[in-house]
Amino acid sequence: MDIYVGNLSTEIKEDELQAVFAKFGKVQSATILKDKFTNLSKGFGFIGMSSAVEGQAAIDGLNETELKGQTISVAESKPKPGRAEKKKKGRGGKGRKGRANSEGKQRHRK
Hints:
By secondary structure, the chain is of the alpha+beta class. Helices cover 18% and strands 27% of the residues. A hairpin with a 6-residue loop joins β2 (27-34) and β3 (41-49).
């Protein structure tokens, strides 16, 4: 089960977060998202628990509790929308070279 953890302190490390969730069961992964330029925590992360029962126990036990001076929010992670679900905005295609003129003939640049 994947779990979202929000409002994390910038001081918390992944191993500390994993230890907090390990009290509720086996933790498969612990990830805190970081800014790619500053390498500072974005204030949220994800935990992978080995079973849904253990994951739900962690959510119930840790949601709205204090961790390193911050009240964290813990919930089941929602799946990120895939590319197929997003609305396409571009026209796609091959550019000018691949377009046909009004008579259906290919145009070529000179």
